[in-house]
Design a protein that fits this description.
- The complex is a heterodimer of chains A (444) and B (575).
- Chain A contains 12 helices and 23 strands.
- In chain A, the strands form 5 sheets. In chain A, strands 9, 13, 14, 15, 16, 19, 20, 21, 22 and 23 form a 10-stranded mixed sheet that branches.
- Chain B has 4 domains: 70 residues, Thrombin, subunit H; 272 residues, P-loop containing nucleotide triphosphate hydrolases (Rossmann fold), CATH 3.40.50.300; 73 residues, Beta Barrel (OB fold (Dihydrolipoamide Acetyltransferase, E2P)); 124 residues, Bovine Mitochondrial F1-ATPase, ATP Synthase Beta Chain, Chain D, domain3 (Orthogonal Bundle).
- In chain B, strands 8, 18, 21, 22, 23, 24, 25, 26, 27 and 28 form a 10-stranded mixed sheet that branches. A 6-stranded antiparallel sheet of chain B has the order 1-2-5-4-3-6, with no helix packed on it. Chain B has a 4-stranded antiparallel sheet with strand order 12-11-9-14, with no helix packed on it.
- Classes of the chains: A alpha/beta (444), B alpha+beta (575).
Chain lengths: 444, 575
């Protein structure tokens, strides 16, 4: 016996208000109109007035449409059959295949008890030296890529997804351009990882608020795979689109905006998603990488700003390169001490020298005289940018470390690098054979 | 049941009450599956009560039952608090994990103190004695401390001890005394009692002026921007500037008896780090693990927002309780901005008229009254207890001109402002020596502090000038001054937190180093050119930095000190 309510009292923005009884807060409803069925979520209860956020938008809805309460929160099927599948922002198949049957799980579950988390200590190798050497990605880390709109952030994300050693890859697209979606699919297909990938894709053509569910769907599924002992990598792009959808709903609901129109709970909303990244005690892990486009390249914009306070570091993507300054992996200290004994020394020395190179460039640009030392630095800067910083460089960690040594040897005398004597003796390239190669050890 | 839900919006529930409702009392919203969600009454309008729910409100319906209770949200006080890891409502998290697993499921509330643990009780007061609230009835040993069992803090007037337990082992629930008063009332007392978290707990003879320096072993703090026992300070800074690392270092090395860490709305990973590391670290003062002097209240960013608001008050109440025993307590709140944001969220849902950046109008007074819970007090038995509060602030965009930072600066005694420029330059701790201030007197003579601060300011001016006119346009004297400022910055203010020796410098050593650096700065160098100035200062900087890394009194320490003294004697000229 299904009960319908059709006493709609208000339709505004993407919110529809209906008189109904027995609606549970945060639970789902289905609205049937001339245009088919649309999913909606209860976002406010006041007496018998039930405010519903309609995921497909309210275009074409009428005040006589029928609303049915489902009496349960948003759920998603959890099964191995999800692997290789593509869904939209409401969890419907996007790949012309049938619905997935499986154990239904709630999305937006409570937080993990901190005492059941492990200290993260496993490195995720990406093949990108700017990450592997300088800001190592660590399993269970939550890390955003701060970027302006034109940068190749989606390519970077796809590459990390492809090369990171993960059991399950989950891609959440929010406001994704259709070409980008196709490109992701193509990249994963060609890379042969589509079989262990799950995609929840909301494209720019879909109704805005439909993207609100995407992170929760991805993270709920990811969390269950992690509980089953899997190593999960969640890629989210773009979290600014998600935040803008939150803003839209908050304004329709007449909430007082706090900063540039964003709701006061933006920090909490973002944190609840990012904090899902976890390394479970005695189970698997979930790593979260997210793209955050910065409107106007402004890091103090509420979205990147709140994100920075939540995440464990950030990568800045600028001019097609991962910026060495400003980029930070807060967890790198947990892993870079045990990869190879020159890792930390190379990390510090290369960045310090590159910083000096920038100073020399500034001096040069202002017309000050260049000393021989300045010229060495300028030469080093060029090599470092071409052979290490360039995003097309794709080499394993140890090879990247060796390459750094080569660059240093090409530009400097050993004592000019500021690296400890014992490390220099072990790794400084000799004319013929490199001792570093002999030292190669299997990674833990 | 004495009420029903009439509206739900986020974590705000409006309930129709059928009986008396007390503002700030606790209540439970009962889900249809029987789960009871803890809430607090935050506004009363006639028979309508607005409740802030400390859990996710998913699945609540209009018409669901609400239970109202007369008591206010309270903390449980008694032996067994030390070493615990609580959430914002004082649920012990390890026990919760044993009970419900990986996730913090709604509606599970556990006793804050283990009821089965027994304690060696020794009575101090005698039968027939007249006592008042807060007077010591007996003691139990709790780790390294003598935990005083005090008469309930909410006693009014004088009471007589009718009966007191003999020495022996008791649990926190066993009766240890019976009190009576002239009005013929009788009260049974156990080792545990409760106190409403939003009311300051202070049963003392008087408040004292805090003057005793609190040594944190962070040089820039102790020497230039000191804090005192019973004082307050704040650490605002943009993300990535090292607020949390600074708090963690302080929690390890601060010269106090008890540290209470309130991780309020921050990353769970950081709490995990403390959780896993503290039991392994030894407290240099006692040789026991640091955990034995620590209580962690953690309400991380993904946990329900309203409980975040409660968590700082819970932490303050526990801190005040130990202060009542004449101990020195340090409360570290990280971050107060998240607490303020929790207030903002609730205020928005209550549709209050917003102030700046949508924060409620009462933001400043709430911040002020929180920091006012700090202080040094003289207790009735003459001993002195102190509570020091240090809070981090996470200003939006790293801009200190925002309501929470400004509201905090008005009420604290010291300001340790972290700067992005210093953290980018890897100058840690990234406390800005030009902007920060302290109203307290520390371990270094005020005149010396003023001198070095002037030197740093002048050095900065010269440096700014140099970026415009280049080194060529700067005089040798000015250049030398800038180099000296840089030398002081390098050798005193910067510190490697991850080095065992450099990471924590004792007060005596700081004083000694400070004087030694002044001797260097006071040398009449009379350099002939800038290159000579640079090389000389680089040489002494290198010596002092290595000296900082050498353990006090070690052979290396003495050798380097000898070289530094030789440098000073030779006025920096190479012999």
């Amino acid at each position: 016996m299904r009960k319908y309510y059709d006493d709609v009292t208000k339709i505004a923005g993407s919110v529809l208000t209906v008189k109904a009884h027995g609606a549970g807060y945060d639970e789902l409803a289905v609205i049937r109109s001339d245009h088919g069925e649309s999913l909606a979520q209860v976002i406010r209860l006041e007496g018998n007035q039930v405010a519903l956020q309609v995921f497909a938008g309210t275009q074409g809805l009428s005040n006589r449409d029928k609303v049915r309460l489902l009496g349960k929160p948003m759920q998603v099927a959890y099964t191995d059959d999800l692997l290789g599948r593509i869904f939209d922002g409401s969890g419907r198949p996007r790949d012309a295949r049938g619905q997935v049957e499986g154990q239904m799980i709630d999305i937006g579950r409570p937080a993990v008890n901190p005492v059941r988390r492990r200290m993260p200590d496993k490195m995720v190798e990406t093949g990108i030296p700017m990450i592997d050497i300088f800001n190592s990605l660590v399993e269970s880390q939550k890390l955003p890529i701060f970027s302006i709109a034109g940068e190749p952030y989606n390519e970077l994300l796809a590459r990390i997804g492809l090369q990171a050693d993960a059991d399950v890859i989950i891609l959440g697209g929010m406001g994704l351009r259709h070409d980008d979606y196709l490109k992701f699919r193509q990249t994963f297909e060609e890379g042969g990882v589509l079989g262990r990938t799950i995609m929840f894709i909301h494209t720019a053509a879909d109704p805005t608020v439909e993207c609100l569910l995407v992170p929760d769907l991805c993270l709920a599924v990811g969390e269950h795979f992690a509980l089953d002992g899997k190593k999960v990598l969640v890629l989210l792009t773009d979290m600014t689109a998600f935040s803008d959808a939150l803003k839209e709903i908050a304004i329709i609901m007449e909430q007082i905006p706090s900063n540039r129109g964003y709701p006061g709970d933006l920090y909490t909303q973002l944190a609840r998603r990012y904090e899902k990244a976890v390394d479970f005690d005695e189970a698997g892990s979930m790593t979260v990488l997210a793209c955050v486009t910065m409107p106007g390249d402004d890091v103090t914009h509420p979205v990147p700003d709140n994100t920075g306070y939540i995440t464990e570091g950030q990568f800045y993507l600028r001019n097609g390169r991962i910026e060495p300054f400003g980029s930070l992996s807060r967890l790198k200290q947990q892993v870079n001490g045990k990869s190879r004994d020159d890792h930390r020394s190379i990390m510090d020395a290369c960045i310090q020298l590159y910083a000096l190179c920038r100073e020399s460039r500034e001096k040069r640009d202002m017309g000050f005289e260049m000393s021989p030392w300045d010229n060495k630095l300028l030469h080093y800067g060029k090599l470092f940018e071409d052979r290490i910083m360039d995003l097309s460089v794709n080499i394993p960690l140890f090879e990247a470390l060796d390459r750094c040594w080569e660059i240093l040897a090409e530009c400097f005398d050993p004592e000019e690098t500021g690296i400890r004597r014992s490390i220099i003796d072990k790794y400084w390239p000799k004319a013929s054979s490199s001792p570093a190669e002999e030292m190669e050890m299997a990674s833990a | 049941m004495n009420g029903n839900i009439v509206a739900v919006h986020g974590n705000l529930v409006v309930a129709q009450a059928r009986e008396r409702v007390v503002q700030n009392s606790i209540s439970y919203c009962v889900r249809t599956d029987g789960t009871r969600l803890l809430s607090e009454v935050v506004r009363v309008r006639g028979q309508l009560a607005d409740l802030q729910v400390f859990e996710e409100t998913r699945g609540l319906h209009v018409g669901d039952a609400v239970e109202f209770h007369p008591e206010m949200l309270s903390a449980t006080l008694g032996p067994g608090l030390l070493g615990q890891v609580y959430d914002g409502l004082q649920n012990p998290l390890p026990k919760l994990a044993d009970k419900v697993g990986y996730f913090l499921e709604s509606g599970h509330y556990l006793d804050a103190l283990p009821e089965e643990t027994t304690w060696e009780f020794t009575p101090v007061a005698e039968t027939g004695a007249t006592i008042q609230a807060g007077h010591t009835l007996g003691t139990v040993p709790e780790g390294i401390f003598t935990h005083q069992i005090m008469a309930p803090f909410n006693l009014r007037g004088e009471w007589k001890i009718e009966k007191i337990a003999t020495a022996g082992t008791y649990t926190v629930r066993d009766e240890i005394a019976v009190l009576t008063n002239d009005a013929g009332q009788s009260r049974s007392v156990t080792m545990q009692q409760t106190w409403p978290i939003k009311m300051p707990l202070n049963v003392s003879r008087r408040r004292l002026m805090p003057t005793d320096p609190l040594v944190t072993k962070v040089r820039i703090i102790d020497s230039l921007f000191p804090i005192v026992r019973g004082g307050t300070y704040c650490i605002p800074g943009p993300f990535g500037a090292g607020k949390t690392v600074l708090q963690q270092i302080t929690s390890r090395h601060a010269d106090v008896d008890i540290v209470i860490v309130a991780a309020c709305g921050e990353r769970a990973g950081e709490v995990v780090e403390t959780l896993r590391e503290f039991p392994e670290l030894t407290d240099p003062r006692t040789g026991r693990t640091l955990m034995e002097r620590t209580i962690i209240i953690c309400n991380t960013s993904a946990m329900p927002v309203a409980a975040r608001e409660a968590s700082v008050y819970t932490a303050a109440t526990l801190a005040e309780y130990y202060r009542q025993m004449g101990l020195n307590v340090l409360l570290l709140a990280d971050s107060t901005s998240r607490w303020a944001q929790a207030m903002r969220e609730l205020s928005g849902r209550l549709e209050e008229i917003p102030g700046e950046e949508a924060f409620p109008a009462y933001l400043e007074s709430r911040i002020a009254s929180f920091y006012e819970r700090a202080g040094a007090v003289e207790l009735y038995d003459g001993t002195i207890g102190t509570l020091t509060i240090g809070g981090t602030v996470s200003p939006a965009g790293g801009n200190f001109e925002e309501p929470v930072t400004q509201g905090t600066l008005k009420v604290v005694g010291a300001f340790h402002g972290l700067s992005r420029a210093r953290s980018d330059a890897r100058r840690y701790p990234a406390i800005d020596p030009l902007d920060s201030w302290s109203k307290y007197a520390g371990i270094i003579d005020r005149d010396k502090v003023a001198r070095t601060r002037a030197l740093l300011a002048r050095g900065n001016d010269i440096h700014q000038m140099m970026t415009v006119v280049g080194e060529e346009g700067t005089s040798v004297e000015d250049f030398t001054l800038a180099q000296c400022a840089e030398f002081f910055d390098n050798c005193m203010l910067q510190q490697n937190a991850f080095d065992e020796v450099d990471g924590a410098t004792s007060a005596e050593r700081q004083q000694f180093v400070f004087d030694k650096l002044l001797e260097v700065i006071d040398i009449d160098f009379a350099f002939e050119n800038k290159e000579q100035a640079r090389q000389t200062i680089v040489r002494i900087t290198d010596l002092v930095r290595n000296w900082n890394y050498a353990a006090t009194g070690s052979e290396e320490y003495e050798a380097l000190l000898g070289q530094i003294d030789a440098f000073i004697a030779a006025k920096g000229r190479e012999s």
